[in-house]
Amino acid sequence: AQSVTQLGSHVSVSEGALVLLRCNYSSSVPPYLFWYVQYPNQGLQLLLKYTSAATLVKGINGFEAEFKKSETSFHLTKPSAHMSDAAEYFCAVSPPGGGADGLTFGKGTHLIIQP
Amino acid sequence: GAGVSQTPSNKVTEKGKYVELRCDPISGHTALYWYRQSLGQGPEFLIYFQGTGAADDSGLPNDRFFAVRPEGSVSTLKIQRTERGDSAVYLCASSPGLAVDTQYFGPGTRLTVL
To answer: Is B44 close to A105, i.e. CB distance below 8 A?
Structure first.
């Protein structure tokens, strides 16, 4: 069975500071990995995805993530936080083999931006 | 173009009642997914359709939950004999096809069972 662990249910950073949101996965085969963002009262929006091409993936709004197989990690980073980045962030893993079945999500990390 | 839409946006019902939640996927998307998101948790997979058929319903918690997609487009999630523990946001997503594609999510239906 697959699982996703997001360390830190809440992360607080100052505006302009580095954002680092942690995600570790467990999967029997190399998975596909996703980061989604959820703003209050809105649906989930895809930030970026890893599908076995380049291990460093760039997404929207200046976010990027690096797939590290040896560490089974897919941490999300942004060099400089903006107030508009305050939201809930979810890491998700695809089924083994990359099929089109449902994703397995982590519990989420609430990102707080301090002015 | 239009995204995934879900109706109603909010539904309040009483314990034991029957509810239906509707999802309109992005036009042309063959894959459709239902997830449930409880307070403070990530979305939990319920069921996945490829066309009209349920390709994977392993996430449905029990036989009170049922979903249909009769014409391969709109889907309805049906919950019988609702319980207070069914209270959650029910999310629908769609994607273009068979491979691992981005899933596009709707805004969700917030279900409250009193």
So the answer is: yes
